Amino acid sequence: MKKVKISNGLKNVGKISSGTLLGQLIAIVSLPILTRLYGSEIIGYMTLFTSIATVINSFSDLGLTNAIMIAKNEEKSYQIYKVVSSINFFISIISFFIIPLIYSGEKQYNPFFIGFMVSIIVLTQQQIQISYTWLNKNQKYNILMKNPVINQVSIFVIAVGLYFIGVNKYGYFIGTLVGQLLTLINMKRCLPKSKIVFNLSKYKNVINENKDFVFYQLPTTILTNVKNQLPTFLINNFFGTTILGYYSITQKILNIPINLLANAIGKVFFSNISKMVQNGEKIGEYVFQNLKRATYISIVPITLLISLSNIAIYIIMGYFNDVASQMLQASSIQAIFTFLMASLSGIYIVIKKQNYALKSVIAQMLGYIIGFGLGKFIFNDVVLALYITTIIYSIIQIVYFCFIFKAMNISPMRYLKNVMLCLLLIITLSVILSLVFNQFFEGVIL
């Protein structure tokens, strides 16, 4: 039974990954072009706008989006879907009026433009997630596989086109918004029709039936998203928008294997374990085997990214940038655990251990504040700040997964052996390959 589930899961991962692969190939090709056209500062601003929207979206669904996945029947899922979509719509409108007040002193861009950008991202970002959850539950992978291609093609074509007709200050922003809108349209045409809900009793019913998500998932999601965006805010405030642009570029590079493989694995994994739990099956061994597989998959891309960091930055930016290269190396180890987290998406929800995730998120937030605080006020060095935060983050993630596996009656030692072997291999191979690659490629380029 487990082999059949894994086999079907791999087929579904293949479907999503095929679209993701093409989308990522487009993203890889377009990244150096867009970076050279618009520069790191504009990319930094787009990262800032997206981070603000992501924090707002932490509460724009009251934590109920994932409840769609495990609702008892189709009607319950539909009611949640309508209510969550409506809440997000109202919050996006409110954000349009609030954000300009917060950024009233901004000189580079009009505060109302920032409010417009953030409000549209709030709406499209959350609606995409809601739609993805619905389609994932119903295993509409043929639809989902088109999303990355639609998004990346739209961003590239619109942004490049606008740049060459002189819209070089706003072209990248507009291209990104169009990409999200077209991605959303692709999914919405395959979703049940719904209107904005104004009946308060429907909100009350959905919230009462899903109290655990509101009381536990919502604070966890808020803290998780704040935690994920905290480096963006701290780097922007401590080191400036240009350095934030460098950071954003390194994250785009590191997200290639995560978006290509881990997210696809995680979407199917969440769907499978939800059904297994509903059927009364034990999921411990299935989860461990998926983690083990994800660990092995992560070794090659992460090793290559570390060892080719200088070359990757040269290709993207058009010149060697030591700060950006070192930032990429410092963040790579953290990307391993991000890869594993994405591959086991929703595990803490299914086993009802939201409190583990909550404690982990709080610890990570403190780690970021400590790491970037030391990096700024003691060393005044963004690279050292990233190394400190990476070490803290890695320790927290290792402890977190130990508790997750213990809760499923799987020995934490099995996980520790697996992840330590992975880290040892990646660090060893990276050191060897970086010496070979850097000497060869720098000689060729110079």
UniProtKB/TrEMBL annotation:
Spans traversing the lipid bilayer: 21-39, 45-71, 83-103, 109-128, 296-320, 332-351, 358-379, 385-407, 419-441
Cited InterPro entries: Poly_Biosynth_Transport
Pfam families given in the database record: Polysacc_synt_3
Subcellular location: Cell membrane
Lyase keyword on record: no
Membrane topology: Multi-pass membrane protein
Keyword Transmembrane helix annotated: yes
Gene Ontology cellular-component annotations: plasma membrane
Keyword line: Cell membrane, Membrane, Transmembrane, Transmembrane helix
Alphabetical list of PANTHER family matching this protein: O-ANTIGEN TRANSPORTER-RELATED, PST FAMILY PREDICTED COLANIC ACID TRANSPORTER
Name this protein carries in UniProt: Polysaccharide biosynthesis protein C-terminal domain-containing protein
